[in-house]
Amino acid sequence: MIVRNCSGGIVFYANQVFLLKNEKDEWVLPKGKIRNEDSPTETSLQRVKKEGGVDAEILSSAGGSSYEFYSISRKQPVCNQISWYIMKAKNKTCQINKELGFKDGGFYPVDEAIEMITYSQDKSLVSLSYKKYKDLVKNKVNA
To answer: How many Cα neighbours within 13 Å face the side chain of 116?
Structure first.
C-alpha cells in the first residue's frame, strides 16, 4: 500500500465555509499531497490558493483524517493521511481551478455546506472546526 502524507484547509469566512465540487461531483475540502520539503502548513495554504483561489491564514490545527482507495493507475491501494488546518479567508473572493478538474465551489453557509459535503468524516470535521473557529475569532477580538 502507498501511504501519502497530505494536508488541507477548512476555510471559513464569517459563517460560511469553502467547498469544492470535484470531477466526480463530490463536494470536498481543498487538500493535496505534501511535496518535497514543504511543510503541512505551507501545503495547506498552497492548495487552498491553487484549487480555489482563496487567500487565507491559518488559525489552528484541526486534527487529522485518513482514507483508503484503490488506485487504478498505480494498481494498488493508497492511503491518504491528511493534516487539517482551520483557516480564515481574507475575503470571499475565490477562483475555482477548472484545470485541476474542479467543476464548482465557493463559500456556503456552514449548515448548508454540511448537508452538501459528500463524506461523513468531512462533515464532522467542518462541524467541529466551525465551533473551534468561532471560539478562536471571539477570543482574538477580546484579546
So the answer is: 22
Q: Give the whole-angstrom CA distance, residue 28 versus residue 74.
A: 23
pLDDT at residue 87 is higher than 70: yes
**Nearest in space to 113 (alpha carbons), one of 97, 100, 124:** 124
pLDDT in tens, 43-86: 999 999 999 999 999 999 999 999 999 999 989 999 999 999 99
Does 98 have pLDDT greater than 80?
yes
Q: Report in angstroms the alpha-carbon separations of 86 from 10, 74, 80, 118, 130.
A: 5, 32, 19, 19, 8
In order of their start, the domains of the chain are 2-142 (3.90.79.10)
Q: How distant, in Å, are the alpha carbons of 14, 57, 89, 109, 113 from that of 143?
A: 19, 18, 20, 27, 30
Strands 16-21 and 2-13: antiparallel
Q: Does residue 133 contact residue 86 with C-beta atoms inside 8 Å? A: yes
